[in-house]
Amino acid sequence: MVFAAPFYIWLAVFSVQAHKEERFMYPVYPSLALNAAVSLHTILGYIGSSDPKKLMGKIPAKLKLYVVGLCVILAIDISVGRTIGIVDAYRAPLQVYAPLHEARFANTEANVCLGKEWYRFPSSYFLPSGMRAKFVKSAFDGLLPGQFTEAKTGFGFFPGTWLIPSGMNDQNIEDSSKHTDIEHCSFLVDSHFAKMQPSTLEPKYVEDIETWEVVQCSRFLDASQTHILARLLWLPDLEAIPARYRRRWGRHCLLKRRSESA
């Protein structure tokens, strides 16, 4: 009970919260793995019983071994399929920033802006030292992340780790000071899906070829158009797979503002 309880306590606490995200469960994944191991040990202990007075004791050992082995292999297959499926579907935000490190953009000081894709920005570590991530106004009306201070002196040790960025609040109220005018953006990261409905705040930047040129695009799963089975597990894009179960793709793109001379 002492080892099993933490996971269920954590699960109960966050289950009653109005706002839920998968990342809230990250701290207790080790406890989940421990609980799974204890459960498997208990189940195998029961199945492995050789007492002829019990039901499991009357089943041939080889049959029990085959059934248990099949279940373990099935669990491994599902886990691998899930892992590959997630990586294949959503790795684009980890790929599109790579061109910024190429020689053609070396020593460039610029703003890399994000609109509706702000929450998929992995980290400023993906940007060269001269570039900064900025946010442009989108349909999202909550509080955007703040920027850590880059002050070197006057604020003690490592001020970026403890100084609270300006404009922060605990009520998810929008802070307009975190928005940057899109005219100040040299680069823009945005996604494009075939059936996406554009709006004033979220236009189809990828199709605005007069203003933006595509630096790199990576495919990104169109979850709204993909069957739940294909969202949960990796399925190969083969003719043998019925069309309704195949994955539908959009694009996650890094765009560069065209120069006025172009």
Strand order of the largest sheet: 2-1-3-5-4
H/E series: HHHEEEEHE
> Which stretches of 5+ consecutive residues score pLDDT under 50?
none
Number of strands: 5
> What's the helical proportion of residues?
10-25%
Approximately how much beta-strand content do the residues carry? 5-15%
Mean pLDDT value: 92
Query: Overall 3D geometry?
Result: extended
By DSSP (H or I, 4+ residues per run), the number of helices equals: 4
Q: How far is the first residue's CA from the last residue's CA?
A: 68 Å
Structural class: alpha/beta
Gyration radius, rounded: 25 Å
Q: Major beta sheet, specifics?
A: 5 strands, mixed
Please summarize what this structure is.
By secondary structure, the protein is of the alpha/beta class.
List the defining traits of the structure above:
alpha/beta; extended; 262 residues
Can you describe what's shown?
The longest helix is centred in the N-terminal third of the chain and has 30 residues. The chain is of the alpha/beta class. It is extended, with a radius of gyration of 25 Å. The termini are far apart.
Please render the helix and strand layout as text.
Layout: H1 5-15, H2 29-47, H3 61-90, E1 110-114, E2 131-135, E3 187-192, E4 212-221, H4 228-232, E5 249-257
Parallel strand pairs: 1-2, 1-3
Antiparallel strand pairs: 3-5, 4-5
